[in-house]
Structure formats: structure tokens, C-alpha cells
Request: fold
Amino acid sequence: MAKTKKRKIGAGDVASNRYASYRYELSDRLECGVVLSGTEVKALRASGAQLKDGYAAIRDGELWLHSVHIPPYLPASRENHDPERDRKLLVHRGELERIAAQVHERGLTLVPTRIYFSGPRAKVEIALARGKNLYDKRESIRERETKRDMERGLREASR
Reply:
């Protein structure tokens, strides 16, 4: 019986939100720094994070990351962090104002797509997203299946 392997994430990524491209139409991406405590950084390096239900919101002129789960760092028993706490994102003022205008005018959502390390610093990539309808989701599944069938046919034809 074959072992089932966990799907790999991109090179250098700590966590990625593959489900976001299924639920949303992603348009503009932005790299943000994230304010973390020491145990959060160690937990990210050790075991990653879960971005599936995460979103970003602008509150009091600042960008905040909500509902991203960073598991507790096991060796730090007492001084651990809250896994579901809100985290502040660091962006330039001009980028924040541009994003805030697009979110307010066009009714878009900010969705985290991946967390990665750039040198010693943790970064979060967020994307402007518009929710898909059910028929859009079915269409994306249909496109993926036809692409897979075409690749399979090409492989078999080249044998």
C-alpha cells in the first residue's frame, strides 16, 4: 500500500493558503512584515502555521492579521503565546492607503496567501480578493480537470 505524502509548499514558504485561490479571485499581492513575539518565530520555524481561515483588516489606520493559527512552541511551556491572537502587519503608509481605497470602493477582502522568511524576518503575502460564486468554483474545477486530462494525453502520446 502506498504512503500518502503531505503536499509540499513552495520553496522557502513556512505556510501557504492553497485554498484561497479556490474560494477567491486573487488580484493584487503585497508583501508585509509581521510583528511576532519570540516564541511565535520559533514556532513558525519549527512547525509552521495555518492560514485557511485567516484574513487581514484595516483598523485604526493599521493593518491587522486575524484568525491565523501559529501553534505554541513546545519547549517554552510558561512563556508561550496565544495561538489565535491578532498580529499587526507592517506596510508603508502609501500602500496601506491604496489598499484601503480598493477595499472600501470595490468591496474586496484581504486574504493571506503565504508566510515565509526573508532573511531573519517573517513576511506575510496578502492578496486583494473577491469571493467566487458556486458556479465559478465549479468552472475552476472543470478547467483544472481538463488541463490534467490534456497533460495525461500528451504524456501517453509521447510514450
Observations:
- The mean pLDDT is 87.
- Residues 12 and 118 are 9 Å apart (CA to CA).
- DSSP finds four helices and seven strands in the chain.
- The first helix runs from residue 20 to 23.
